Amino acid sequence: MHVSCCRHHFRVLLLLFAAAASAADEFQFREAPQFYNSPSCPPPLTSTLDSVCSPSVLVHVAMTLDVAYLRGSMAAVHSILQHSSCPQSIHFHFVASSSIARLNSTISLSFPSLPFLIHPFDPSVVASLISTSIRAALDRPLNYARSYLPRLLPRCVSRVVYLDSDLILVDDIASLAATPINPPFALAAPEYCNANLNVYFTPTFWSNPSSPWPSWAAAPAISTRA
């Protein structure tokens, strides 16, 4: 009797764990409310493919996208639209390495009017180049897709704001996108724990013939508080 009872509870626990795992794999998102431009904004973008090069694009936003961090990405997109004065003039660029059809469907159903593109990223491009000294949480190739944005995005995109998928914006992204970046600087990044980027990106780093970084990345970077 006791053994039978224990087996029953064990089977129930297995079923519960299986149900939880299945639910985690199939997140359901409600359709987000429509956010509208203020009167001073450019004309709203359409969700067609050619909108990416429209002169009405006020801000290009790039993010990586995968199933594991999908909830964070959806929350980030919602916060960007919610706090923007011109939400219909923002074009999103999602970089993904798998489950692209599923991700495309999820974004389209949750944000029906969102102008966006999903750019496929081949993880083998960078998989063999990831240093084993980097902490395990950063060993996923998609974490390094941001370095290949110039190769992934259309040529008409001259400036883009890259955001991690685990953040929430509480201000208008247009202010961040308007950060001055004058030649010879190629990018701007927020200060992170007072880190000195020159310690990591040394002349030896840039002179490495096996470096995967595009040539423009060798330009100096400036740091700005976000």
From TrEMBL:
Q: Which GO terms describe its cellular component?
A: Golgi apparatus
Q: Which Gene3D superfamilies match?
A: Spore Coat Polysaccharide Biosynthesis Protein SpsA, Chain A
Signal sequence segment:
1-24
From what superkingdom does this record's organism come? Eukaryota
Note one Pfam family from the annotation: Glyco_transf_8
Specify the pathway. Answer: Glycan metabolism; pectin biosynthesis
Entry EC no(s): 2.4.1.-
Sorted alphabetically, the keyword list is: Glycosyltransferase, Signal, Transferase
Q: Name one GO molecular function term.
A: glycosyltransferase activity
Q: What top-level class of enzyme does the UniProt entry assign?
A: transferase
Family, according to the entry, reads as follows: Belongs to the glycosyltransferase 8 family.
> What's the name of the protein?
Hexosyltransferase
Origin species, per record, is Vanilla planifolia (Vanilla)
